[in-house]
Design goal:
The structure is a homodimer. The first copy, chain A, has about 240 residues and is α+β, with helices and mostly antiparallel strands. Chain A is about 25% helix and about 25% strand. The structure holds a DNA duplex (30 and 30 nucleotides).
Chain lengths: ~240, ~240
DNA sequence: ATAATTATTAGTTACTTTGACGTTTAATTT
DNA sequence: AAATTAAACGTCAAAGTAACTAATAATTAT
């Protein structure tokens, strides 16, 4: 079989920015790199793409390796291809970001990679261009969460409004008026109020809510402005 | 020097979805592929990444090769990496989309590639996964144009409101109320009214406008909803 | 027991933006 | 001079937004 001769081949990797929310702060899961170059330094979880894998498959595999989780929210972020980004060998990296329920993770924590959660505000210096990847991922979830309800992916099955609010406050690093926040939220119809209350953080207790999965899927692409009702148009 | 042994190398390409607006319709520039496989079929303009090139550099080079243009709007769209996408050899492709002023192009049209503009609504079948790339690009500019003023990139230096409106109508394949459209537009403060009128399309003539470049840059990242004034927060 | 405390939830108001629709204007053509 | 036509301007009710006041349900202190 004929091939594209003389074209230069290179390595292609996938790196994952894994976000979690502990109920108070937004965090990112990092590993201590175990091999040369830059062994011993903090890094994103990643790996090379194999011959028969698609990019999404590779990203899911890598995520599963580190967290034991499958079927979580995973989205391609950006391809990074500076010729010198990896000092050892020319490598293109496709960055993905994942939003996981941090509690599901903790049970199957993987010591093998020396993984650790870091506050997004207190990240160590990372290898290669991983700092830039993380910055891009933080920007992306800010962008996307302003228009789509993706942050629910970070929450456990049942959660409280104050939790949800501190998640938004963490992501945007700002204070939000709680009365207006509740009103916007409930007007989306995405929340189902449960009987039970969480009393761990207050005397009164905050009602638990769960996500209306059907409405969540239906409203996921909805967003507003500039074009009247663009969600009705995008096909 | 040590290398990542045993990891499988592959080809990495860049493909460009080039959008233009002729004053009435949104179009995409395609080429007739001149080599095996799939020679003679319609295709996006693309090329392999060379050893010392970044992805953006490669995309700009490819765009320049076909259009003769430099410094135009170019944005990374998505990396496509299905193992079978290119039947000949494993190739990852990073798709970019470009928004160009179609009039600047026409002067330096390049016959060498047998390039041709197609209506986005009447596209021929393309090679490999280029159809999917085009679909993704159309979706992306719909998404982005609903929130950011990117469509100005498709217009010449001076343009009329009716032109701008039919551009938006073309992108979203819908009718827009012209009174409300004008109001939204002028409220952005992006437009500067010129003395001159374009009388080619009506008796009364429509005033030409130009873009306030300073405000354009300042407002480019602005968008609305969910989080009050997110544009003030994103840093 | 009662009062104080505190996070949570409900309600109010002035203001801005939106979408739908009616009218006038500036030119050309008849 | 009248008819024509696209362009530009104007109005209004309804919906949404941000800022703020008030009430509630529990716990803790007296």
């Amino acid at each position: 079989m004929i091939e594209y001769t003389k074209e230069s081949q290179m390595l292609v990797a996938v790196d994952c920015i894994i976000f979690g929310f502990d109920g108070e702060n937004l965090k990112i899961l990092l590993i201590k790199r175990g091999f040369h170059p830059e062994g011993g330094k903090w890094s994103l979880m990643g790996g090379f793409i194999e011959k028969d894998e698609s990019l999404d498959e590779a990203a899911n595999k890598i995520l599963h390796e580190l967290t034991g989780l499958k079927g979580v929210y995973l989205e391609q972020l950006h391809a990074f291809g500076n010729p010198l980004r990896d000092p050892m060998e020319r490598t293109i990296s496709i960055a993905y970001f994942a939003l996981i329920d941090i509690h599901k993770y903790e049970r199957q924590l993987n010591d093998h990679y020396h993984a650790e959660w870091f506050l997004t505000t207190e990240m160590p210096n990372l290898i290669f261009d991983h700092n830039a990847m993380v910055e891009a991922a933080k920007q992306r979830i800010r962008y996307k969460a302003a228009l789509h309800p993706i942050l629910f992916e970070l929450l456990p099955r049942k959660f409280t409004i104050p939790q949800l609010q501190s998640l938004y406050e963490g992501v945007y690093n700002t204070r939000i008026d709680n009365r207006n926040f509740i009103r916007k939220l409930t007007s989306t119809g995405l929340l189902i109020k449960l009987e039970e209350k969480d009393k761990s953080n207050s005397k009164k207790g905050a009602f638990y809510f769960k996500l209306d999965k059907k409405k969540y899927k239906a409203k996921f692409q909805a967003f507003l402005n500039f074009i009247p009702n663009p969600e009705n148009l995008i096909s």
